[in-house]
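B., you asked whether I could sanity-check this one before it goes into the benchmark set. Here's the sequence:
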Amino acid sequence: MNKLNSSPPMPPSPFNVTISHIPPPGPSVLSLPPILTDPDNMSVESLRGVPRLFIRALRVRISVFVNEQGCSLYNEIDADDARSWHWIASDGENPVATMRLVPVSTITEEVHDAKEKNSDGLLTEPYHGATKMWDRREPYIKIGRMATLAEYRGKGIAQTLIDESLDWAKAHAAELSSGEGKQLGDAPQWRGLVLSHAQKSVQRWWEKMGFEVDEGLGVWWEEGIEHVGMWRRVEVLSCIRGAMGENNEMIDRRDIIGTC
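And here's what the prediction gave me:
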């Protein structure tokens, strides 16, 4: 995974689509009630501390994953939602597409080679060992919860979300690499590797976005839908800007981050 990939030029969209994004909303989202399709009718207490844009993103996700694809409503919000950056595309006041960018994990998780199966004997998660495309050690970020309302598909909106989020990521590698309780020099350093757990039925679309399937990760089932692991590498800025020098001048912390 040393080559840099890019997505094709985006076709013009007939809609007045605007793109917004929010930083990680924190643990408040984990206590949201499961019925989230109409945030305007939710109580102030239930929304306390939860960004409205996150609720708008959930409206799209529920429409696509729960109502259209039959996934569980109760599994829609997970721990990654709290620590991810979320992108939302809106046509006027209506949210129409969304995705999230899961940062480099700051938790040392046990990496195992076992393959978990459900009661039907189907794999329920990807292979966790090293593959030809991932050495099992390099940190990566993950694109997830990519969803577009049916009537807005094929207009280049999802591609815009990917392009804008990865452009943002290229310039914010430090934020993606550091986390709560981590010193800058101790955080896993992200060098541009991006993962998608893509639904197999739209694998070709992800390939057009510059992603390449990793056969070593296998094929597995999430919520009754076949998934494959796909990688893309982007170019990352080679230093962290923003550290203060002796005279309060801004300097590049190349001594900490190295070259990406």
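One thing to flag: The longest strand covers residues 94-102. Otherwise nothing jumped out at me.
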